[in-house]
Design goal:
alpha+beta; 5-stranded mixed beta barrel; 3 helices; 5 strands; globular
Length: 123
Amino acid sequence: MKMNKKIALMLFAGAMSLSSQLWAGDDLAIIQAASDRHVQVADIQGLKDGTAITLTGTLIKHLNQEHYEFNDGTGLILLEIDHDIWKASGIQVGDKVRAVGEVDTHRYKPTDVEVVKIEKLTQ
């Protein structure tokens, strides 16, 4: 019985590791696709869901949990930045940033951008 639990635990751990690698691969694909697709907030409404993009502008304020208001001078949009990405970036509200992510359209709420990479720009 103990051996079956160990095997099950090892299989679960292996599956989780593979899942993490697949997510990291997805993020890398987004980063590569967005490298030559620099857009402005004003242009995002015309883009399809899942379009990889790069934005440059300022984080205006932290709204809640993983949501931040972003402004590039052409408009405002909500950025969804996972806690682990936020913590690793060293960015604070008010900083000028380059954000890479995917357009995320919704049926009943405004379009936002799910960020996979963000970096602080020097003024």
